[in-house]
Amino acid sequence: MSQLYEWDQELFRLIHIELQRDWLDPIFVAITDSGRGEVYITILVVFCFIHRFRSYAILALAAGVASGVVAQALKLLVVRERPGNFDFAQPITTYIEALMGQAAPMASNSFPSGHATSSFAIAVAIAWVTRKTEHAWLGWTVVGWASLVAFSRVYVGVHFMSDVLAGASLGALFGTFCFLLWRKQGWIPGLASAP
After folding, report:
1. Could you tell me the pLDDT band of residue 192, with boundaries at 50, 70 and 90?
2. From CA 124, how far away is CA 119, in angstroms rounded?
3. DSSP the chain
């Protein structure tokens, strides 16, 4: 287990310190902020009011919120210090944290990444709905966005790579589960329910 932790530290150092560039900082800060619950919930709630997208937005919202709640519960169970507390780390405060007068979050537990969990839950749910349709590109786009959100959490210095990989896996499970539940219940227009 200590070997895995050493690899996690080295990968964190590589991404957070070695790959850090001043011109990339604002890009990854914006990406990481886009994965905050307040942001995606607001966007998905707006889509809930557009009749054409309502069932899809509710599916994505349910996947994102449910997975986020589970991720926060796991953080209470798994005590793991954030890598931003390392002496060499230089965590980057995001725009939203700056607006709220906060520094980068270093007090809470690190495992799993809530941003990665919720982002992947939303992305995978949308990818399932759009697969084999003319809108499949949208599914791939949101999966790409979720991947960037997950990577950005390491780049800004608040998570290990294993935190975001665990979060992405958990989110993918929730996105798939919610999609299957919605399909079984017939809540997705145009998709036949499972037998």
Report:
1. very low
2. 9
3. -HHHHHHHHHHHHIIIIIS--TTTHHHHHHHHHHTSHHHHHHHHHHHHTSGGGHHHHHHHHHHHHHHHHHHHHHHHHS----GGGSTT--PPPPHHHHHTT-----SS--SS-HHHHHHHHHHHHHHHHHTTSTTHHHHHHHHHHHHHHHHHHHHTTS--HHHHHHHHHHHHHHHHHHHHHHHHHT-STT-PPP-
Q: Show the domains of the chain with their CATH numbers.
A: 23-185 (1.10.606.20)
Beta carbons within 8 Å of 52's beta carbon, 6+ residues apart? none
* pLDDT tens for each residue of 62-97: 999 999 999 999 989 988 888 888 888 888 777 777
116 pLDDT more than 90? yes
Q: Are 49 and 123 in contact (CB under 8 A)?
A: no
Which are the contacts of 175, defined by CB distance < 8 A and separation ≥ 6? 63, 67, 120, 121, 122, 123, 124, 125, 126, 127, 128
64: which 2 tokens?
A: 């994102």
CA distance from start to end of the chain: 43
